[in-house]
Each structure stands twice: as C-alpha cells, then as structure tokens.
Design a protein that fits this description.
The protein is built from 15 helices and seven strands. It is an alpha+beta fold and 354 residues long. It has two domains: 220 residues, no CATH class; 104 residues, Homeodomain-like (Arc Repressor Mutant, subunit A). The strands form two sheets. A five-stranded mixed beta sheet has the order 3-4-7-5-6. Strands 1-2 form a two-stranded antiparallel sheet. Helix 9 packs across helix 12 and helix 12 packs across helix 15. The protein is elongated, with a radius of gyration of 24 Å.
C-alpha cells in the first residue's frame, strides 16, 4: 500500500502530551463531514471508526481527543481520496503532500525548502498561494486566497499553515516557536484553542493569513534524508509539531532576549513569557543544550559591562546598573570572578592596550 500521505490531522491537539484529553473542537469534525457531503459520500463509518457519536456534532462546545481527530482525518483522506479534505476546487490525490515533502528535502537550507514547498503547492492547488518573506529578524509565511473558500475557509487556512509549519519543524528536527499568527476571519467560538495550535498570540479579523517566527531558522540546513522521509510519511509526523521538544536556536534566542529586553528578563518566568515557553521547558531544553539560565545571564552581563568599560567613561556604578546589577558591590564581585580583575583595573588595562 502506498504510504506517501499525511494521515494525521493538523487539528489534532494534544494537551500535556495526553491524547486522552479532549481538546479538539467538534467544529473541525463538522468540516470533515461537510467534505463528505460535498463528494456525496456517507461519513458514518469514519465517525464510528473514530468513536465519535453523530449527535455530538450538534453541540459546538463538544471536544474530541487528538487520537479521534487523527483517525477521522486519516480515514476521510482515504475514503475521499483527497488529502485536502475538500478545501480546494479539485482533489489532492493520495500522495500529494508527500510529493511536496520529497521536493523540499534536498534543499540546502530551510528557507529554500519552504520556498520550494510554496511554489509546488501552487501547482497542485491554485485556490491559494503561499509565500515566505523576511523583514529584519522576523520570517513570515503568508497565504493569499484566490477564490472564496466558503464554509471550509477556517479549516483550510489553519490546516495549510499547520502543515507547512510542521514540515519546517520536521526538516530541521527542531521546534520553531510561532511568534504571532493572524487570520482574516472573525474569532470563532473555539478561539481559545488557537494558543495550542500556534504557540504565540493569534490575531483575528486581520488583513491576511500568516505566521511569524525567528528568521534564523531559515538558515538552518535540513537534517532529514530519504529514509527519514519514508518513515515520516508512514507516521505523518509533520502534522503533530508538539513532539519536537528541542529548539535548536533556544540558546541564541535566550541570549538575544536578555540583550534586547534586559528589563523583561529578570526571572525565568519573565523570560519564559517573552519566549512563549513554560519555565520548566526553558530549563529542561537549556540543560539539553549544555547551558544554564544563570550562565547565559552572566555571559550577557559580562559582554555588556566590557563594552561599556571599553567605549564609555561612565562611572562604575552606572555600568553596574546598565549590566543589570542591583548595586555596585555585587557587580564588582561578579566582574572580578569573570575576568580576574576589578572593573577599574580592566578599564585601565584596556586603555593602555589601545
């Protein structure tokens, strides 16, 4: 049997890594049922296989588990022979998204891989187009709509974004935190689940559809080969991005946040909020990278202090404050521990060497 497909749903939301916790809104199941009706087929068998009671579809507050959503999505893709589940004017036959993944895997960088994905996606579905752009330190993936997507608009736009974001994470084997997501439709009744679909804040009634993330991820090379691709296609891993525990840019992101926003990174809780991760996750991932929060904080403080001592004539007390210390005494003690000399001696030595 051909396994070159994505059998899991981009809407399969796992809460605290437990597929037994109902978190996926029934509205997403209603969208799949609508696709069955479009093709004149009966969704009863798929609903039964996923253990979803038909009467539960009438209650907009109903939630299902990630497992149930994955089962009904995979079953629907097979029965409808449409990996897009009715989003587009024409079907995306079995293996369409696998083909896009295969075309992207040989790229030298994630940025080029995503541009290939966007270009090839337009060839198989011209209802919309995807684009990747960079502005300063922020990368964006944007969707432009070329026809009215109708009742499946939300399901389509969120799915396409989750797909490409999941593939990006898979290609470089890293979590890629979403800094911001926006959609052109009004906030749906289930808007509260969007913080699970996308890690950053979500804006509704926006001018366009898109997500933003740190542009440095685009320069990272893909870490996958053909064998990994075959395994992925069998398990549809790109569509469940929560399994990516590792963020390969975390140390750089922490260092940058401490440098750029010293007033917002005094504690692990403040830093976690800024980076859209939990404090526990922050400490665990830094440990996996061989780093500590205190070590990075000392590194940033030292670099700031050394820069000010070399470039300015500011008093030591002012430099201590600028480096994030509460008093001059603690700064002098820390600085001597870093360099072996006091700040004043360091400035004197630098002046002599200049």
């Amino acid at each position: 049997m051909d396994t070159s497909h994505f059998s899991a749903s981009p809407f399969a939301i796992s809460v605290r890594k437990s597929t037994d916790t109902p978190a996926t809104p029934v509205a997403f199941v209603q969208a799949i049922v609508a696709a069955y009706r479009r093709y004149g087929l009966d969704p009863s068998a798929a609903l039964q296989k996923a253990q979803i009671a038909p009467e539960s579809l009438k209650n907009s507050d109903e939630r299902i588990t990630a497992w149930q959503m994955e089962v009904i999505s995979g079953t629907a893709m097979q029965e409808l022979d449409d990996e897009a589940l009715g989003w587009f004017d024409r079907r995306l036959p079995w293996g369409s998204y696998g083909m896009l993944a295969r075309a992207s895997i040989s790229a030298p960088s994630l940025g080029i891989a995503l541009k290939r994905w966007c270009r090839h996606h337009s060839l198989i579905a011209d209802d919309l187009s995807l684009s990747v752009s960079v502005s300063g330190t922020v990368a964006s993936i944007t969707i432009a709509e070329h026809r009215d997507l109708g009742a499946l608009r939300e399901f389509c736009l969120v799915s396409v974004l989750r797909n490409i974001h999941g593939v990006a994470c898979w290609l470089i084997d890293s979590r890629i935190p979403v800094q911001h997501a926006q959609f052109p439709f009004a906030a749906p009744p289930h808007a509260e689940v969007y913080h699970l679909l996308f890690s950053g804040p979500t804006e509704f009634a926006a001018a366009h559809t898109g997500i933003q993330f740190d542009a440095r991820y685009l320069a990272m090379p893909p870490r996958r080969d053909e064998q990994a691709l075959q395994q992925m296609l069998q398990r549809a891993l790109p569509l469940t991005v929560l399994q990516y525990r590792r963020d390969r840019l975390l140390v750089q992101r922490v260092r940058q946040a401490m440098t750029t926003h010293p007033e917002r990174t005094h504690s692990a809780e403040d830093l976690s909020t800024l980076l859209h991760v939990s404090s526990r996750t922050l400490h665990r991932q830094l440990k996996e990278e061989g780093a500590t929060l205190q070590g990075l904080k000392d590194e940033v403080r030292q670099a700031r202090a050394v820069d000010l001592l070399n470039r300015t004539d500011r008093p030591i007390k002012q430099i201590a404050e600028a480096a994030g210390f509460q008093n001059e005494k603690s700064f002098m003690r820390a600085f001597k521990g870093w360099t072996g000399v006091s700040p004043a001696e360091f400035r004197k030595q630098s002046t002599l060497l200049a």
